[in-house]
């Protein structure tokens, strides 16, 4: 059952990344992807925490499934990013590092939600604050690769 929960979460995150196949414009793809990841961090924080715990332990339950599911999926996303670099649409960046940065930035809002709560005067981010967070993460990522938000 635990493995099924983790694999279902991976499928949800894969759905978030369909924008890599649907659009060619890196601004549209990355803005859409970041927003989807942030929304899941807000609405399904526990799932991200369970995923993080599994991976931090060396993925004892998912090890083989990750090799089959995550590796090829990530390589396809990296390929798209590499195309953007080669065509001059974005500044040179190592595609895997860009993905790691997006995952770290967006999932922070789930994995460390208590820290955000604490630093936000013991309140969860309200809708306006959350929207500003999405826009901030998006803007920093996009500007880092030479795009405007």
From TrEMBL:
Q: Name one Pfam family in it.
A: TetR_C_3
**Which residue numbers delimit the Transcription regulator YcdC C-terminal domain?**
6-147
Note the InterPro entries from the entry.
Tet_transcr_reg_TetR-rel_C_sf, Tscrpt_reg_YcdC_C
**By its UniProt entry, which Gene3D superfamilies does this protein fall under?**
Tetracycline Repressor, domain 2
- Top-level taxon: Bacteria
Query: What is the protein name for this chain?
Result: Transcription regulator YcdC C-terminal domain-containing protein
- Organism of provenance: Vreelandella olivaria
